């Protein structure tokens, strides 16, 4: 009986230690999402930093097609030099519930060999979705954070990326994206990080507020919630749900090692079984100091150079430290700091503990 009480008390302590988070921060509504848009167009008005048309024929082709729409025919075979024009790709995210007339930000990137888009203007460009339909129209003056300068002697300086820019509010929405928000008598909440404990806590919290059976867990990553059919009531309903505070389940114990930068991140629940660790280095130094061998005056001998090698071994003395059962993160860091291990040494220690079966965590090397 006492054992069960101790286990229950430990679970209560662990639950209270976890900080509660709003439901809107750990889950999203299925079907309520942004959609990617893409387009192809021309940026004009550049100060001689546009595409070199001899190497980017598609820029000239696009320019000719645009001029043909205005009834202007460019003579075929003409050597057209468009140093102030650049072919670009445009992409944007169309937020959920966007309505015609609203504006969204767009990003423009050169797809030719333009040196800079600074000072350019994007001509009217349709933005299409994955289904091929036009959902927005983009146009406007670019904001470019980088710049490029070149001298007559060939010296050049480039800051940031001058071949890409943005137009805040540069696209106008022309078509809404259908959403399943107002369809059916239920909604599905998808967790940002799948966790069975978190899903159970969400179900318990919603049912505690609205009654039993309102929320049911589909799996470790989704929760189905009954919802009113009236869209206006559904908005109020979701507003109440997304502000509920839920205690998320603790993440799996992990140790992340970035071997390139030497960064080591140890998760909260990482523990070490009883183990003793010592870590040091042995340095062997071999120095050559040849000496001259001089024979006696009447020995008829010859002067010779005799090699003289000196071998020294220096082993760095570092104390052994011991991990007791259930060692926590604080104790691991404290023990390693006392030994004075560098990040590379700590990587070796953690890998050795994992191989010995003493590290109770997933060791991930990136």
From TrEMBL:
Coiled coil ranges: none
Matches recorded under InterPro entries: Flag_FlgI
Transmembrane residue ranges: none
UniProtKB keywords: Bacterial flagellum, Cell projection, Cilium, Flagellum, Signal
GO biological process per UniProt: bacterial-type flagellum-dependent cell motility
A single MF term (Gene Ontology): structural molecule activity
Compartments (UniProt record): Bacterial flagellum basal body
GO cellular component, one term: outer membrane-bounded periplasmic space
Record Pfam families: FlgI
Signal peptide annotation: 1-20
Subunit details: The basal body constitutes a major portion of the flagellar organelle and consists of four rings (L,P,S, and M) mounted on a central rod.
Family of the protein in this entry: Belongs to the FlgI family.
Annotated function: Assembles around the rod to form the L-ring and probably protects the motor/basal body from shearing forces during rotation.
The protein, known as: Flagellar P-ring protein
Source species: Pseudomonas duriflava
